[in-house]
Every structure is written in C-alpha cells, then in structure tokens.
Design a protein that fits this description.
Layout: H1 12-22, H2 24-72, H3 74-92, H4 99-123, H5 125-131, H6 138-162, H7 166-189, H8 193-215, H9 217-221, H10 232-260, H11 263-299, H12 305-328, H13 330-338, H14 349-371, H15 377-394, H16 399-424
Helix pairs in contact: 2-6, 2-7, 2-8, 2-10, 2-11, 3-6, 3-10, 3-11, 4-6, 6-8, 7-8, 10-11, 10-14, 10-15, 11-12, 11-14, 12-14, 14-16, 15-16
Length: 439
C-alpha cells in the first residue's frame, strides 16, 4: 500500500448533494417549504374535519364553495405576483427605498374595486347557490366576504416574496391556516354547518392580512421614494392569465363535478381533489422561491436555466415520493383522512397522485414564464383550461370519467408547456424586465 494512493473522486450523487447543501435556492426552499407544508397540512385538515363532521353530501357543498373561493383567490395571486416581481426588481437594482410607496399605494388602490366586486357578486349569490345545488345562499355571502378579504392579503405576501423574506412569508401562510382550522372545529361542533365553514375561511384571511402587515412594519414606518406604478399594468395581464389558469385547473373540476355528479359522488371527488393538492401545496414553495430568483437572474443577465432545472428536479422527486405512498397504502390513507364513508376513493389514489404531480409541474413552469414576462404561454394555458372543462362537459358519467378527463388535460398541457420552456430558455435577456422598477 502506498501513501500516495489517489483518493477516489466523489460520485455524481455526492457532488449533487454537496452543491445542494450550499445552494441558496435549496435553503430558501427549505424555509418556505416548512411554512408551506404547515399551511398545506392546515388546509387539508380543514377539509378533513369538514368531511368527517358533515358527511359526503354536505361536505360536497363546502368543497365546491372553497373551490369557488380559490378561483376568486386568483386576484390575490395576481396582486402577489405583480408586487413580488416589482419588489424583486427594485431590490436587484438597489432601489429598495421605493418599497413603502409601492405597498401603501397598492393597498389604497384596491379598496374601491373590492367593495364594488363584493356588492355585485353579492347580488348573484342566490344564482350561485342554485347552480351548486346548495341548501342556502347564506354561505355564499360569507364565502364572498372571505374572497374579498384574501385579495387584501396579496399586498403583504407579494412584498414579502419579492423581498425574499421567505421566513416571514412562511409564518404568514401558516397563521392563516391555524386560524381557519381552529375556528372551523369550534363552529362545526356548535352546529353552524356549511356557513360556519365559510366564516372560518374569512377569519383565516383576516389573520393573514394582519400578520403580513405586521411583518412589514419596518417598510411601513419609513416613507421612501415615489415611483410610477403604471409599468405594473402590462405584467398584470400576464399574471392574471397565469394564476387564474392554474386555479381553474384544480378548482373548476370540483365545481363541475358538483354540478354533474350525484351529491355523494361529488363529495367523494371533492375529497380526492384535496388529496391531489397535497402534492401541489407541498411543492408550491419551489415555485414561490423560483419566481423572484428568476426575475433577479434575468435582471442581472445571469441565465436562470440551472435554477429552473433544479426546481423541476425537486418537484419531480417530491411528487414521485407522494405518488409511491399513495400507491402503497391507498385504503389506509383514505380511511385515516376521511373515514370509512370515503373508502371508495381508494381505488383512484394513483391517478389522483399523478394529477397532483402534473398540476405542480405546470404551476412551476407558469411561474417561470411569468417571471420571464413571456406571453406565448398564455394561449397554451388557456387551451389547457378549456380542454379540461370541455372534457368534463362531454364525459361525466361517473368518477372514473371525470378523473380521466382531468388527467388527460393536465398531461397534454404539461407537454406543451415543456416545449415552450425549451424554446424560451436560450432567449432570455435583461430587457425582458427593463421597465419594472423604473423611477
């Protein structure tokens, strides 16, 4: 044996792990993943409690109302993404003194449209209740109040995300769900039913707004440079299409299932949809971290391709583990989560897991496209949303058909999104974010 024997070079796996441990992207993902997972688990527990205490038929009402709320929540995501993009660009260019004006001015601009929307949608509440076959239209009114409240939450969350304060954003998301679940248990136990479930959603949104503003108290305390906000308008269209498209993809099916299927089957499908979103919300932090990092990379002419591929790898790994667990113990999972009344859902766990994985990957790519201010992805995404709705409209004889519709639409959309992404990556230039953050 010689003293000068060569030490074997570390393998590919070891090198990957070493890079991951020192990667800022990975560290930020871990921070936001912790809060995102707690928020996701809280959201899931909300549905679990509602399903167990109300039964499939009444839970179907809650699931459809929450899906309608989440579709309306698209406005929140638009506000969040627009502000996150603008704040990230301001910070990348060393113009952080303008953050106070950005946040305060946006908050004031939202008040009047929110009140108008609440009044108009409130008039339509009885029609919405009739379409969803609800017993009363009162829960619809509470859902609308919650929806308008969550719009306001988009302001602090957008600022926190753009400034890459992921720990504070993580806490904010968690607190919302803690309040929602805690109040839900109390209200259902005292007999408030579907209405109580919507009141709990409203309370969670209010806590999210208050805690978000508290986390930004340092920005609120120091007035800074005034900036033009008109440059945000063009990106708002891109953000609206991206966020609403994804929200429709995983909520429109629940709404349509409630309309076309029996009350019992609609409740079962609502439960399956929430199991699917375990993967979606479990990987959402990857998209949230990627977004400001891509904006920053493009602004600094630092090609973001490596960030995108690493993020895709993280989502694939996490999603594959979840699908494997779903395949290994479907009856046990459904029994623990929803109880024996929902056991019929066990046979659909693997396709539901694949739907969740496809949804997560589509969402990640949409975040990338929005960060790059791409417009070509918009008709692709809208076509995917339309395809899902048309397939359910045409083929809705039972649970199996609706699941097959959604699975087909999402994987066809994913293929188209990947192709668009491969064409876009080599073309990214700083000029794509040149207008944001201009004084």
């Amino acid at each position: 044996m010689t003293l000068n024997a060569e030490v074997p070079a570390p393998g590919l796996g070891a090198r990957f792990l070493a890079r991951a441990r020192t990667s800022r992207l990975v560290r930020q993902n871990l921070v936001l993943f912790a809060g995102g997972m707690l928020a996701g688990v809280g959201g899931f527990i909300y549905h679990l409690v509602a399903a167990r205490l109300l039964g499939p038929a009444l839970y179907g009402e809650v699931a459809s109302l929450v899906s309608a709320y989440l579709v309306g929540n698209g406005i929140t995501f638009v506000i969040t993404l627009v502000l996150a993009r603008y704040a990230a660009t301001l910070e990348a260019r060393g113009n952080s003194s303008a953050l106070h004006h950005l946040m305060v001015r946006t908050s004031k601009l939202m008040v009047f449209p929110s009140l108008v929307a609440l009044a108009l949608l409130g008039v339509l509440a009885p029609l919405g209740a009739d379409f969803l076959h609800l017993h009363s239209w009162v829960p619809v009114l509470w859902m609308l109040l919650a929806m308008v409240m969550i719009w306001q939450v988009g302001v602090p969350r957008g600022m926190l995300q753009g400034m890459q304060r992921f720990a504070a954003l993580s806490v904010n998301q968690s607190l919302e769900m803690v309040m929602r679940v805690g109040l839900l248990v109390i209200l259902l136990l005292v007999g408030f039913g579907v209405t109580g479930a919507m009141v709990a959603v409203l309370a969670g949104a209010a806590v999210g707004y208050a805690s978000g503003m508290y986390a930004l108290r340092d920005i609120l305390a120091v007035p800074g440079e005034r900036i033009r906000l008109r440059t945000m308008a063009s990106f708002a269209i891109t953000a609206a299409v991206g966020t609403l498209g994804i929200l429709f993809l995983y909520n429109n099916d629940v709404i349509l299932a409630k309309h076309y299927l029996s009350a019992h089957d609609a409740g079962i499908y609502g439960g399956l949809n929430k199991i699917e979103t375990i993967i979606y919300f479990g990987t959402l932090s990857v998209s949230q971290v990627l977004y400001p990092r891509v904006v920053e990379a493009i602004a600094k002419d630092d090609h973001p391709g490596r960030l995108v591929f690493l993020s895709v790898g993280i989502v694939l790994a996490m999603g594959a583990v979840a699908v494997a667990v779903f395949a290994a113990a479907p009856r046990l999972i459904v029994s623990i989560l929803y109880g024996p009344k929902f056991l019929v859902a066990a046979q659909y766990m693997v396709p539901i897991g694949l739907i969740g994985l496809a949804l997560s990957l589509n969402n990640l790519l949409v975040y990338f496209f929005m960060a790059a201010h791409d417009r070509v992805f918009m008709p692709i995404l809208l076509a995917g949303v339309l395809l899902e709705g048309v397939l359910i409209f045409l083929y809705h004889a039972g649970l199996s058909q609706v699941i097959a519709d959604v699975l087909s639409a999402l994987f066809l959309l994913l293929a188209a999104m990947v192709i668009r992404g491969l064409f876009l990556l080599p073309k990214l230039r700083p000029e794509m974010v040149a207008d944001e953050g201009a004084a």
